[in-house]
Amino acid sequence: MRAMSWHHTSPYVLPRRRPVTAPPRRSRKTLIAAVGIGVALVLSGCDDSGGGGDEGARATKPAPSSKAPSTGESGSSSAPASAAADKPLVAGWQTQTRDEHHFRYDVPAKAARWKVLDPDVSLSYTDKNGKPIVVMTGAANYREGGCASAPNPKAFGEAGKGQLATVGTTGGGTDGTLQENARNWAGNWGFVAYGGADHKPRIEVSQAKPWKRNGIDGYTATAEVTVTHRPSPCVPPKAVVHSIAQKLPDGTMHGWVIYADQGVPHALTAAEIDKIMNTVRPTDG
After folding, report:
1. pLDDT computed for residue 132 by the predictor
2. Three-class SS of residue 220?
3. For 112, which DSSP code?
4. Which of 55, 169, 200, 279 is the one with CA 20 to 30 A from 83?
5. Listed residue (244, 157, 169) closest to 196, CA to CA
6. How would DSSP label each residue in 33-53?
7. Whole-angstrom Cα distance, residue 236 to residue 242?
8. CA-CA distance, 80 to 58, in Å (whole number)?
9. pLDDT tens string 128-174
């Protein structure tokens, strides 16, 4: 498999969105935004901006002069599935389900420092205008609260707050091919999570290759990230991102993504990442 350079320009870009009024305070579903990335999204089929995918992004309007995390409500009409709705494929692990993206997966137990978030919690990076450019839901974090790091000093919220890996689901659009989306999801998350436009990391993304496991017939791609801005030893020198992309009968494409620090204490090994990836499966229906 030959690694290819990945560029954050593409004929496929997110559509321009109209401002949306923020939801009332009684909303319980949360969008965690890391602002100030300012990168053009390389996305062909991901519609997380509100065209039918993760609508947590559409329901958010960050304050113009504030850099505090924003709050939004997911537009999904289906109730989130309970983590107990499906037994984990690995005994003792925790199950996460995101019905909207038709993905279910497992991560190690709480004792191993893994935390499964509410399926509706959205993790997002936004551009300089406060608009989300990548969004994931159905997420889980590894080793929260550790050595805080932020390759992009303007990033806050989910990125660079101590976790060594994050997993989640994304997508919902129809543009591009499944192979393109697999590569773009891997490249985009590597770009924004490990520097963004202010401190662009060096990224190589593999060709997408078939992924046929546990009932998923899709593609996977890997991004190898070299971090260029390391203001402290907490910022990892390298990172890795893996994606799994699947296409539903309605033509929409959905992705599962894991991005993980490398070259720091307690970093996930390739074998540990593979074990998590091998639990990824479609939801019923």
Report:
1. 82
2. strand
3. G
4. 55
5. 157
6. EE---------SS--TTTSSS
7. 17
8. 18
9. 887 888 899 999 999 987 676 656 544 434 555 678 999 999 999 99
Domains along the chain with CATH numbers: 98-282 (3.40.1000.10)
Tokens for 223, please give them: 């991004």
8-state DSSP, 73: -
Return the H-helix or E-strand segment holding 181. helix 178-193
The C-alpha atoms of residue 21 and residue 94 are separated, in whole angstroms, by 35
Provide mean pLDDT across the span 110-133: 89
pTM greater than the 0.90 cutoff: no
**Rounded Cα–Cα distance for residues 166 and 145 (Å):** 13
Specify the 3-state DSSP secondary structure of 189.
helix
Tell me which DSSP letter residue 164 carries.
S
Furthest CA-CA distance within the chain: 50
Distance CA 187, CA 208 (A): 12
- Centre a 10 Å sphere on the Cβ of residue 47 and count the other Cβ atoms it contains: 24
β pairing state of 122-126 and 31-34: parallel
Residue in 121, 129, 104 with CA at minimum distance from that of residue 38: 129
SS3 content of the chain, % helix, strand, coil (to 5): 10, 30, 60
User: Which is more confident, 8 or 149?
Assistant: 149
| CB distance 87 to 67 below 8 Å | no
SS3 label, residue 260: strand
Q: How many CB atoms lie within 10 A of CB 26?
A: 6
> Which of 228, 244, 226 minimizes the C-alpha distance to 6?
226
**Residue 230: which of 269, 266, 202, 189 has the closest Cα?**
202
Dist. CA 46–CA 243, nearest whole Å: 13
